[in-house]
Every structure is written in C-alpha cells, then in structure tokens.
What we know:
Helices cover 55% and strands 0% of the residues. It is mostly helical. It folds into two domains: 5-22 and 139-205, Helix-hairpin-Helix base-excision DNA repair enzymes (C-terminal) (Endonuclease Iii, domain 2, Orthogonal Bundle); 31-131, Hypothetical protein, domain 2 (Endonuclease III, domain 1, Orthogonal Bundle). Helix 1 (5-18) packs across helix 11 and helix 9 (142-150) crosses helix 11. The protein is elongated and about 55 Å long.
Amino acid sequence: MPAKKTDVLTLLKILKQLYPEHIIPLHHQNAWQLLCAVILSAQCTDERVNQITPALFRAFPTPQAMAAADIKEVEKLIHSAGFYHSKALSLIESSKRICEVYGGQVPQTMKDLLSLRGVARKTANVMLGDYFKKPEGIVVDTHIKRLSFRLGLTKQTDPVKVEQDLMKIIPYEYWAWFGIALILHGRRVCNARKPECSHCKLAALCPRKGVKISA
C-alpha cells in the first residue's frame, strides 16, 4: 500500500527543506536544447551530457540545423554518451518532425511529445513539468523508481505503474519538483548499492531503512 497521506506530506516537507529549488541539472538555453539533452541522458550521466552538448549545439544550433545534419557528424560529437547511433538518429528525426509538423517549436502536450523519435514518458514529463511548467505526470527514472520503492510509495516495478501510484498520492503542485528532489536525494544519500541511512533525513519515514534492495 502507498504511504498514508500524512506520511507523504511529511516526506514532502522534509524534501522541500533539503532541496528547495527546482534546478534542472542538464544545461540548456531553450526547450529544444533541453529535449536533446534529455534524449542524450538515457543510460548516461548528466555530467557527461553537459560535457557533450556545448560542441553539439555549436555545430547544430537550431532544430533546422540538426534536421539537416549528417548522422556521422552527430555520432562523432555524441559518441561518449553511449548508444550514439540510436541517439543521433533520434536527435535528427525528432528535429525534423519539430520543424515539419510543429513549426520549429517543441510541442507542449504529452501526445505530441510522444510522437517524436527517442521521446518516451520520462522525457516528455521532463519537458512538460520542468520546462513548460504544466506537468501531465511525474518523471520516473532509476533513482525515482528506487527511492519510491524504498520509501513505500509504491510496490510496482514497472515505471509507468510507479508513476501512476505517485500521481495518486503526490499533490499536483509538487509533481515537477518532486522528481528532481528524489533524483538529487538518490544521488547524494540513497544510492543503489550503499544507502547512507544513518545520514538520511527521511530515515524515520522509510520502511526499508537499512535495506539495499531496489524495486
């Protein structure tokens, strides 16, 4: 069963004290750059993405430029992100669709975002919640999935079902910020292999304190 409402409110209060600001860790100057960065971030650290994107955006500064790019040139620039062939194709094809269908602007609905190559719910939720400030769901990545399970917010293992559970118990106004807060807490305290339970401000609320198992 998900945590009780009072537990969730206490959890949110503590998280807000720990991570009061909503700062997107991926460097970007506009919606299209953030979309590209999130596509690159699959199975790759934010730090690595932030090392890659400056040169990428200098070479291809607009969706129009990326849409016309040679895939080999894009692959060379993003090689260290891993899965570079698939990601390069996603960057080019999604940019083409943005130009051809959406007038060069990143679309602002879940349905339209999901029509772009390389964009699944996680990426769409980042764009809608973190950039456009009109979330339609909650981002679920490996950190959020792990912490949601450990904190007793869900018993699910499928990211879509985890998201559905979180949307039922997290107030709408916290949806976008909540994902960022859990990601930061997962990196700094509640890591996968060795959670720092003795230093965790959420320990009193955590039914799996001291347990290393993830979802």
